[in-house]
Amino acid sequence: MWRLHQALLRRISPLKHPAGWPARGIRCYYATEPKGRKPKMAPLQVSMDGDIYSYGVLLLEMFTGRRPTDNFDNGITSLVDYVKAAYPNNILEIMDASATYNGNTQDIIELVVYPIFRLGLACCKESPRERMKMNDVVKELNAIIKTYSAHTYS
């Protein structure tokens, strides 16, 4: 199994460097074992849980106009906590002031903004097991688009 794993890594590796290769889509470096050495433990299993969390943060960034590294008031230390503190009652106060919207603002807020913030927070749950799966995230995004389009063009 290890040899098959190594053969696949060499085949899909974007770099022909013996020390390792960068894993696509994540910020880490997956070091491959040098030839001839047997592994002491199983090869690294890459998890989608971190990607789901990052996607949630991206949604929150887009709708707040804030970065995860920004300074927040009242002892809040993260963008996720900043949104949690405002959701759902004060969500309008944290929305990106420079964003422009076409159409009825109230409809956009109710049919798009609130569901997107809810989705972003669902992706950013503390426990990876509590986070949404990516296929559910896509279904939810499609449902938001469908609902808004049906309401707008009816």
From TrEMBL:
Highest taxon in the source lineage: Eukaryota
Any GO CC annotation of this UniProt entry: membrane
PANTHER family registered for this protein in UniProt: LEUCINE-RICH REPEAT RECEPTOR PROTEIN KINASE EMS1, PROTEIN KINASE DOMAIN-CONTAINING PROTEIN
Protein name, per record: Protein kinase domain-containing protein
Originating species: Oryza sativa subsp. indica
